[in-house]
Amino acid sequence: MSGPMGVGFIGVGMISDTYLENLSSFPDVRVVILGDIDTDRAKAQADKYGIPSHGTADDVLAHPDVQIVVNLTVPAVHAEISSRAIAAGKHVWTEKPIGLDRDSTSALLRQAEQAGLRVGVAPDTVLGPGVQTAKRAIEDGVIGTPLFASTSMQWQGPDLIHPNPAFLFAQGAGPLLDMGPYYFTALVNIFGPVRAVAALGLKGREERTVQAGPDAGATFPVEVPSTMQVLTAFRAGQQAQSLLSFDSPLFRHGVVEISGTDGTLVLPDPNTFGGRIAYVAPLDKAPESLADLTAEQQWIEIEQRGTVTGRGLGVLEMARAIHEGRDHRANGAVGHHVLDIMLAAEESALRGEFVTLDSTIEPVPAMPLDFDPFARTLTGPTAT
């Protein structure tokens, strides 16, 4: 085949809008069919975005022009649907997390390797100019030798605004598995693989109340820790501490700070594709007093380089990598390692000890500066 790679969706819930807005604008991919358990919803989205076909998951898997399946189902069936896509001879891009346990995700990656097919895993926010500019700055030695990172995502929880928040407090979710992938994926893209994890977890309340929508006032149980504090030890020697909480009245979101021997780098929210990047250099002389310490620190802005788009960037980068016969960056090994980190954090919180990880990843290269999402590059024969 030549030209754009054909894409089909399985699952067209809320998050499908941002995927469709972006993938419909990238010349190197073409969305040909949308599938959902609710076929009326699939039709509505197909009509909204001008997609030629709609139907069920089986229709997507059987479509001859689909080369990449975008799996936007609920986390509990991510691994199952991705496996079905591989069995149908399709590459697959799955929303995060890649799955909910190590065995099924390891089996999925083996299945894909044996079939000669690709697995891509969200978040692809790490491929955006925000994290990528910071990654290049660190590689260029802006902060010297990287030493440690601090990240934070804390607020009072999605039950404040979500009309159906119970699933976000159920097994397989909570702040760790819902929001953790953004932070840990950013960290492993910058520092490399994690060696060991320690964590503490707690439930702010055993029961929560829906505060928005038609079911406001209804209560539901909290099945998993609604606050997690995680320490990660990286194989290259760096360390990180991460707070993930649905129990904090103080809203502090998207904090990623990386400190090295020659400065501290402040990154954008890893749940976005761009934003402010700045670093603070060490003082070159003693301040007059401790009160002057903060005042004398200078925030040095770093120009963000690259085109800011949105979700779907990883699908595009994977499509080009397939065509070019190279590894894609937001790959299944990274997704599996990030899942391993989070499961190890759960286990550490239960056991009260460090948990050593078995999984690892190769270093993830930075995105090329000339990567243009809106260029048409797939004009020759497409690899399978």
TrEMBL record:
<dbReference type="GO" id="GO:0000166">
    <property type="term" value="F:nucleotide binding"/>
</dbReference>
<feature type="domain" description="Gfo/Idh/MocA-like oxidoreductase N-terminal">
    <location>
        <begin position="6"/>
        <end position="121"/>
    </location>
</feature>
<protein>
    <submittedName>
        <fullName>Putative dehydrogenase</fullName>
    </submittedName>
</protein>
<dbReference type="InterPro" id="IPR050463">
    <property type="entry name" value="Gfo/Idh/MocA_oxidrdct_glycsds"/>
</dbReference>
<dbReference type="Pfam" id="PF22725">
    <property type="entry name" value="GFO_IDH_MocA_C3"/>
</dbReference>
<dbReference type="GO" id="GO:0016491">
    <property type="term" value="F:oxidoreductase activity"/>
</dbReference>
<feature type="domain" description="GFO/IDH/MocA-like oxidoreductase">
    <location>
        <begin position="131"/>
        <end position="265"/>
    </location>
</feature>
<dbReference type="Pfam" id="PF01408">
    <property type="entry name" value="GFO_IDH_MocA"/>
</dbReference>
<dbReference type="InterPro" id="IPR055170">
    <property type="entry name" value="GFO_IDH_MocA-like_dom"/>
</dbReference>
<dbReference type="InterPro" id="IPR036291">
    <property type="entry name" value="NAD(P)-bd_dom_sf"/>
</dbReference>
<dbReference type="InterPro" id="IPR000683">
    <property type="entry name" value="Gfo/Idh/MocA-like_OxRdtase_N"/>
</dbReference>
<keyword id="KW-0560">Oxidoreductase</keyword>
